[in-house]
Amino acid sequence: MKPKHQRLLLALIAVVALVSAGLIAASALREEASYFYTPTTLAAANVEPGKAIRLGGMVQKGSIMRGSDGVSITFIVQDQESSQKVAYRGITPDLFVEGSGVVADGRLRPDGIFVAESLLAKHDENYVPKELADIDMTAAENTKNTISQ
Q1: Which of 51, 57, 65, 127 would be 77's cystine partner, CB 3.0–4.6 Å?
Q2: Residue 98's closest CA among 67, 71, 59?
Q3: Confidence of residue 148 (pLDDT cuts 50, 70, 90)
Q4: Residue predicted with more confidence, 135 or 53
Q5: Strands 72-78 and 101-108: what pairing?
Q6: Is 97 buried (19+), middle (13-18) or exposed (0-12) by CB count in 10 A?
Q7: pLDDT grade for 25, boundaries at 50, 70 and 90
Q8: Is 133 helix (H, G, I), strand (E, B) or coil?
Q9: In whole angstroms, what separates CA 133 from the centre of its chain?
Q10: What own/partner pairs with CB < 8 Å and gap ≥ 24 does 123-132 have?
Q11: Angle at the Cα of 54 from the Cα atoms of 27 and 68, rounded to 5 degrees
């Protein structure tokens, strides 16, 4: 076989290997991808139970119910039109309160309850940590003294 044909064969094998690796990676990612739903889009979609999805919305006021074991919790995630019951077992984030935004990763059970595996609490741009809630920031805003003066 001529060297020219050997190089062409090696290039063809490399292309086939790269395409195969790309297809394997794409199929693995497709199985592990979780799609984002709001309660309204989840109600309209035909999501099969057990499929990994991400649910986002606001925690409905008065819906948080803590279990007697201290780590189980149920609550309702809502948007403007619909709501979805969520069950979670674990330690909740500090920012997780009624009326706040939440994103939950998990799976829908056959009975329609969303079982969250992890919770992400969201806050707005005016968030102030609990430790700094009592500090008066107006005095600091009104001073013109800086280190460089």
Answers
A1: 57
A2: 59
A3: low
A4: 53
A5: unpaired
A6: middle
A7: confident
A8: coil
A9: 27
A10: 123/95, 127/95, 130/94
A11: 130
